[in-house]
């Protein structure tokens, strides 16, 4: 008895088309949108994943699985490799998925470090505005710095608050905290503190200028990245075209997975195509990051 495969292949083709549509969505200025969302939902608490229309125990298990998947997203390569291996009748896709796990982990770690860097930069800008406003309202410099929002700066910020509260070397603590990626603006805050701590008004003006300069630099970088997002989107779309071609060939009955995974010519084409695909993505990413002024 022959099992029809048109429906699964059609589903895979529709999924690929949806992925391409998501990849080529119009570029947005993510930094500004995220800041607007944080201000809008600042006091509403974290919202976890909810899976409706399921029995309570099954829903809890699915939510736990989704939470674990968010923590180790690179492991989703393995189920994807298993699915392709079952469709192609080969263990090679699973081995390729296992080899892709460390690469995906490295990429996700780089994105996480970049998010932390952006968060520290935003915190320094908010800190400058908060301390300057408190100084103009009549607070002492140490008191204003001690209550400033700086939790995103991590443990070094605790040393800054301790120095501000107990009369320590505040500029030195600020410079040490400014050694973190994204918190370089604290070195400017330390310089302002060192030359103007005896006069609160002068310190407030200096902090406002530092905050304005940091915000202008951030906005300029975000505008540049928004302009470069078209290049990045084009690269992702071109990278997805071979996958879409394989799915369309399968839907038409050509069975390209059998040729790629079970013939010497297909294995050679698969190896060469995979290498060129990876090299093209890396090359495009380096060009975009160099144009955007991002560090590797």
From TrEMBL:
Record's keyword annotation contains Transmembrane: yes
Lineage: superkingdom: Bacteria
Keyword set, alphabetical order: Cell membrane, Membrane, Transmembrane, Transmembrane helix
Keyword Cell division: no
Membrane-spanning parts: 78-104, 235-253, 265-284
Domain Type II secretion system protein GspF residues, every copy: 135-249
Membrane topology listed for this record: Multi-pass membrane protein
Cellular location(s): Cell membrane
Protein name in UniProt: Type II secretion system F family protein
Source organism of the structure: Streptomyces luteireticuli
Organism lineage: Bacteria, Bacillati, Actinomycetota, Actinomycetes, Kitasatosporales
